[in-house]
Each structure stands twice: as C-alpha cells, then as structure tokens.
Amino acid sequence: MTGSLDNGLKLWKWVDDRLELIGPLEGHRLGVISLDIDSSGKMAVSSSLDSQILIWDLENRRLLKTYEGDPADTWTVALSPDSRFIATGSHAGCVNMIGVDSGNKESVIQLDGKFVYSLAYSPDGTKLAAGAINGIVSICDLQTGTIRPLDGHAMPVRSLAFSPDGRLLASTSDDKQIKVFDVFGVLGTALVERS
C-alpha cells in the first residue's frame, strides 16, 4: 500500500519478483501523509491533509470507517498490533489513542517533544515509540504509563521501527542519522549510529 500527496492510495501485490498494482483506494480529498497496515495484511489505516483517518478492508478493497480529526492531530498514524487502537501524532506533542470500534479518543499520552512526526508499536503492543519534530524519541510503556525519552536526533524524527522481537528500536531523521536503541537498556543512548 502506498500513499501520495495527490490524495491517492494504491494497493500493490508482490508477483513474480515485481510489484503489481491491484488498484486504487479512493476516499481522501487531500494528500495522504501517513498509513499503517495490520500484521495480518487485511486492515489498514491512513491519514490525510483533509484531517480524516480512514480504516480500510484490504481484502475487499473497501472503506470501513471514516474518522474526522483535527488537521494537526492526524499527521501520523499507527495501528496497534491487536487492531483495537489507532495512535495519532499531534502538533501539541502528544499522542491520541483512538478506539477503532468506537472512533472516540480513549486516552492522550503527553510527551516532552513537540509535534509528533512518527509512531511505531512494538510487536507485542506493550510499547509505543514516538519521534518528534525537535528530534526527541520517546518510548511509552502502555501497561505502566511510563515514558522514557531516548538520546534522540538533532532534527525531526521521520521514521521508527521495532525489531521483530521488540528489543531494538531504529530511528531515522532529517539529520541524516540512523540510530538503533536497546529498548530495555538502562541508558537512553543509541547502540549504533550511522549517517
């Protein structure tokens, strides 16, 4: 699945060593700025400059739900591994947790960083990583509510990804650095830094 600033979403399939276009998904009125796919590959969530968050059934290529949001609260989205929650990054430096079934804001996680640019759930769904415009990377323990800031970047954090076992977190930034953190380490410093 890909999204673009021409308000298009496209669904793709890997066939014979190449990507094959399955078709477009129509629903956003303005450019798509974030998307996430659940672990089964059957459901996806997308956000757009139109302030909408859309939930998709990928198997049947149809729109399931539409949530209207605030323009600055739908910049980035992440779908929880159990597909129960959508985390959205906000300009106010917080993460909004929206219930997929209810469409309601269930909780808000306030972070030390500014505008949240990137989000990633750990594979087991117990942690949520957030990257901010001011370079701060935070790990939120969703079971205890603790928030751990990491030694982040000098510029906006654009992408985050957990390792399959959830022990490592990789981050990329406009500072042209890639950092890898030990999620359970005592120090919040990077294990690896590369530019």
UniProtKB/TrEMBL annotation:
Residue stretches of each WD repeat: 25-66, 150-183
Keywords tagged on the record: Repeat, WD repeat
Matches recorded under PROSITE patterns: WD_REPEATS_1 (PS00678), WD_REPEATS_2 (PS50082), WD_REPEATS_REGION (PS50294)
Signal peptide coordinates: none
Stored InterPro entries: SKI8, WD40/YVTN_repeat-like_dom_sf, WD40_repeat_CS, WD40_repeat_dom_sf, WD40_rpt
Gene Ontology terms: cellular component: Cdc73/Paf1 complex
Record-linked Gene3D superfamilies: YVTN repeat-like/Quinoprotein amine dehydrogenase
Domain of life: Eukaryota
Cross-referenced SMART domains: WD40
Keyword Repeat: yes
Name of the protein described by the UniProt record: Uncharacterized protein
Classification lineage: Eukaryota, Metazoa, Spiralia, Lophotrochozoa, Platyhelminthes
